[in-house]
Design brief:
- The chain has 247 residues and is mainly beta.
- Helices cover 11% and strands 54% of the residues.
- The chain contains two helices and 18 strands.
- The strands form three sheets. The protein has an eight-stranded antiparallel sheet with strand order 5-4-8-9-18-17-13-14, with no helix packed on it. A five-stranded antiparallel sheet has the order 1-11-12-16-15.
- Strand 2 and strand 3 form a beta hairpin.
- The relative contact order is 0.17.
Length: 247
């Protein structure tokens, strides 16, 4: 049995034990949502000077990823991409000298992933490789939905600075008013186990729906290093989105 298959089996058995001990008599449903490394990446960046334009640089982004991956600059400027030999995609964007706030965003709906990074106007090259293994399992017991996220096999040497932080991001709104997460979510982070670093989040789906709560759940890991070409990198996995249209 492969290491990945064994990891899934151990995780499912652990969840089943919890369900049997704590929720006897209730209908349960367990689903493995993913057990793999990110599908976006590695990403190769090259910043170079544009001839005859001393104050403008060009950022070339070459990356592996699902075909539906979209590329944005500063979250709202869509960049075209072309596929090159080997199957990678390439996009380019101009970067003016003195602009330390350019943010690039690669996002795939198919894999529910996003990679965000900031680029400084410094000539050079950089490799980003979101290479942590992330296992996500969800299970439902009655009205309670629980996500279990396990981070393992997370070498940092391929991304300068290493991966320094991971955890859960949540956004809850009722209309335009933001709601504290503790009203609806039960979160346990950075639990160590033989499987890796474990995060769990639970919520009562009926309670969220009945109260018209907009809910977004994400899991992320990130790194920052102010001395590099790319001072901040974040990989995000979308877990849950519940949204009510405002009439």
């Amino acid at each position: 049995m492969s290491a990945t298959a064994m990891r899934i089996l151990q995780l499912c058995l652990s969840i089943c034990v919890v369900i049997l001990l704590c929720d006897r008599g209730k209908t349960s449903n367990t689903t493995t949502l993913r057990s793999r490394k990110p599908t976006i990446g590695p990403v190769f960046l090259t910043v170079s000077q544009i001839p005859n334009q001393p104050n403008v640089m060009q950022v070339l982004i070459r990356f592996a990823g699902p075909p539906d991956t979209l590329v944005y600059a500063d979250f709202n400027k869509y960049l075209n991409k072309v596929q090159v030999s080997g199957g990678d995609f390439v996009s380019v964007v101009d970067l003016e000298e003195g602009n330390d706030k350019l943010v690039l965003n690669l996002e795939s709906e198919a894999s529910s992933e996003r990679v965000i990074f900031r680029v400084r106007p410094v000539i050079g090259s950089y490799k980003i490789n979101p290479n942590c293994n992330v296992d996500v399992t969800s299970y439902n017991v009655g009205e309670i939905t629980t996500y279990t996220i396990v981070v393992s096999e997370c070498p940092g040497e391929e991304t300068e600075g290493g991966w320094k932080e991971w955890g859960l991001l949540d956004q809850l709104f009722k209309g335009v008013k933001q709601i504290p997460s503790e009203y609806y979510l039960t979160i346990k982070e950075n639990q160590q186990s033989t499987l890796g670093n474990v995060t769990t989040v639970s919520f009562n789906r009926s309670s969220v729906m009945d109260n018209n709560i907009d809910l977004n759940l994400y899991f992320y890991y990130s790194t920052d290093s102010q001395d590099t070409l790319v001072p901040y990198i974040e990989w995000v996995l979308f877990l849950e989105k519940i949204h009510f249209d405002v009439l």
